[in-house]
Amino acid sequence: MKTKTFTQNLALVGILSAQAIALSYLESLIPAIPGFPPGAKPGLSNIVTMFSAGALGIWQTIYITFAKAIFAGVTRGLTAFLTSLAGGLLSTVVALILLQNKNNKLGYVGIGIICAVCHNIGQLCVACFISGTPELFTSYGPFLLLAAGVTGFLTGTILKYVMPALEKQMKFIIKSK
Amino acid sequence: MKKIKLFSRYDLLVLIVISALAIILLIPNLFTSDTLTATISVDGEIVESVDLSKAAGFREIKIQSDPAVKVRIENGRICVIEAECEDKLCVNCGWLETDGAMAVCLPAKVVVSVDGKNADTESPDVITY
Question: Would you state the CATH architecture of domain A2-173?
């Protein structure tokens, strides 16, 4: 029976990865939002990784993060791969810690914001490292922090309302007795 | 999976902490000094340093990088006007005219930054014997 659950997990992770990639492509079509720092995006694919972190497990979520990063790398180059991977991994690890924790007192909004902030911190670290300018943290960081507050609020709220659909999808593929 | 509320009071705390942190980090950016120096660097090496307060008229500099980036300097401000990269994030940063303002083109590894260099910041903080 072990191989069967493995196949089911593989199928589910594949579908979730595709959804995350589709969402990150979708948000690249959104033009720059006035008042937001250039390059700031809603981070809609975080919805999928947060769901995976809560409902599935560590490896499934990290797999989705890698799939997202590779997609960014293929379509936007090596720097995009590195920033996506660093941001994705940091926010994934934090999401796993928060969502797998039984004593978690935060709501979806709080988790969404913390994940968005971690995502931005990871990306900013890579950007600082590549460009060799640690000053980016003070010049660009505060704006990214504010943007993460808004986008995290958004993704957390969306996650709450798409949760039933995502759980239905999961139960459709992984038929537990 | 455990039931999670949409918004708990701890979320409010998170929101407040994040906003406060952003505002605290923003404060140093608000102080602009009289003399502004624009520094353009490629791959961590400074290629051009311009005193913005003394820049009269306008001029354009083409930076030797891959992909190529073009900046324009006029009346105490600097702007990336052209970049041959795909995302154009540096161009979207617009005019840089305050201390600490920055435009970065990651694909070209070009950093354009503006620093307010006062006499105080140039001198050492402490001298001990």
Answer: Orthogonal Bundle (1.10)
